[in-house]
Amino acid sequence: MLIGLFMVLMRLLDVYCWVLLLSCIFINLCMFGILDSRNQIVWKVGVFFSRVTEPVLGPVRRMLPNLGGVDFSPMVVLLGIQYVLQPLLLEVFRTLLLR
Fold first, then answer.
1. Comparing C-alpha atoms, which of 6, 17, 4 is closest to residue 76?
2. In this structure, is residue 47 part of a structural domain?
3. Membrane-crossing residues (predicted)?
4. Measured between alpha carbons, how far apart are the two ends of the chain, in Å?
5. Domain total in the chain
6. How far is 57 from 77, CA to CA, in rounded Å?
7. DSSP letter assigned to residue 99
8. Closest Cα partner for 20 from 63, 92, 80, 88?
9. Which residue among 24, 38, 73, 84 is least crowded, i.e. fewest CB within 10 A of its CB?
10. Do 31 and 64 meet the contact criterion of CB atoms below 8 Å apart?
């Protein structure tokens, strides 16, 4: 039971990392004019990415200094997931298994 829960949490974090990366690629493709945001499907995909990533990226953006047009919040969130959250979950899992 506990192993299954741990695996699901780790897999969800992996999926969220991929969603963040795809969102960054999608935004850049729209900004460079490769994707037309007036297209209904492209617009819906953009809204989906925005709704999924903005609750996490918004607070991080407010904490980071304004660097002009460069947004480092996805990188900060990805690094936080990879180097803080996943190792923390692993330690909690190990602690619970040793009890």
1. 17
2. yes
3. 12-35, 72-93
4. 15
5. 1
6. 7
7. -
8. 80
9. 38
10. no
Is residue 1 assigned to a domain?
A: no
- Supply the range of the domain harboring residue 29: 10-98
pTM: 0.89
Which pair of tokens denotes residue 88? 């923390």
For residue range 7-66, list pLDDT tens digits in order: 999 999 999 999 999 999 999 999 999 999 999 999 999 999 999 999 999 999 999 998
Residue 33 Ramachandran class (φ > 0 left, ψ -120 to 50 alpha, else beta): left
Task: List, as one string, the DSSP characters of 27-92.
Answer: HHHHHTTSS-TTSHHHHHHHHHHHHHHHHHHHHHHHHSPP-TT---HHHHHHHHIIIIIHHHHHHH
Structure tokens at 89: 């979950």
33 inside domain: yes
**11 closest CA partner among 96, 98, 81:** 81
Report DSSP state, residue 1: -
Which two tokens mark 16? 């969220």
